[in-house]
Amino acid sequence: MHRPIGILLTILLVVPPVVAQTTLEEQSADAFYTSILDSQRRPMAFPHLRASDVVWSTMLWKTIDLNELFNQYFYYPINNPDPSDKKSLAYTLWDAIVEGEIPIYEDDQLTIPIDNETFVRQYTKPDTIVLEIGYDDDDNEMYQTIIRPHEFDGAEIFQYSVREAWFIGRQETRMDSRRLALAPLKQSYHKFANTEEEIYLGLLPIFWVPMQNPTVRRLLARETAYINDNNLVGQPSWDWVFLHQRYTAYITRESNIYERTIRHYLTGEDAIEQAEIIEDKIYDIENDLWDY
Q: Theoretical Cys-Cys bridge with 157: which of 49, 141, 184, 258, CB 3.0 to 4.6 Å?
């Protein structure tokens, strides 16, 4: 009497799960094998954590410098759209913001949300340029006003700032981390009204992305990071890159009551040494737990 149920269970166990694949007809004209759709990739689920599960934690702010050889795959390709349909991380985020797919914030604590539509409109607002073109018959200066479009340019993004949570869980008693917020940094200037004078403000965040937000993680999971130029097969997703910290980064700040960054009190070699001291201290805490 229970045999049909047993047969059904056997079928469910034997038949492998169906994975969404593209056929050769569905792929591009030069395809020669079927592949799993990138859009079907999903981010890896993190273990659930409660406050009581965490015995120690701190916050670190790091900078990912794309001038570093190891990080240069973040930067390329610089064209959007690229003939090969590849995207840099900058354009991956920008396109999702334009479509209203992911939320963005003004601050690294993710407390001040930004309206996507308003942000895109303001960021791409055309520049008005007044040019002196000569003199008229009465020797008066003549000017011409030019409206120059202003589009997002991924080639202007040379660094990213990332805020990370580092913690030790009660169950695993080992150090772990999560990327919480990410911001592309761009060279910023302040222009004075009615003059051509401007001052350089430094590399400043354009917006902050909540890295633990499910829509952000789904976006990063389906978009490919082209790390290996010598092998087009098996390239990881951006979600994998951040999950496994497949980049080099240096510490610019540790959580402190003064909310100071390292550069507020140290510069040059001293700042680099302090960043290394903080990093060593983090791992020493994990080792000290095992000693007891």
A: 184
- 37 within 8 A of 223, measured Cβ to Cβ: no
Q: For residue 81, is the peptide bond before it cis, meaning its omega torsion is within 30 degrees of 0? A: yes
Look at residues 156, 167, 163, 158 and name the one whose alpha carbon lies nearest to residue 110.
Answer: 163
Residues 6+ positions from 151 with CB-CB distance below 8 Å = 124
Helices and strands (H and E) in the chain: how many: 6, 12
Dihedral angle computed from the Cα positions of residues 185, 189, 193 and 196, in that order, rounded to the nearest 10 degrees = -140
pLDDT tens, 189-228?
877 766 667 888 889 999 999 999 999 999 999 999 988 7
**How many of the other CB atoms lie within 10 Å of CB of 168?**
18
* Ordered alpha helix ranges (H), the chain: 3-14, 89-98, 116-123, 214-222, 238-243, 268-291
Q: Which residues contact 174 (CB under 8 A, 6 or more apart)?
A: 168, 286
Distance CA 133, CA 237 (A): 51
Report d(CA 152, CA 213) in Å as an integer: 24
Residue 139: Cβ-neighbour burial (10 angstroms; 0-12, 13-18, 19+):
exposed
The yes-or-no verdict on residue 72 having pLDDT over 90 is: yes
> Which pLDDT does position 9 carry in this prediction?
42
Contact 71, 247 (CB under 8 A): yes
- Environment class of 226 (CB within 10 Å of its CB; exposed 0-12, middle 13-18, buried 19+): middle
What distance in Å separates the CA atoms of residue 287 and residue 144, rounded to the nearest whole number?
68
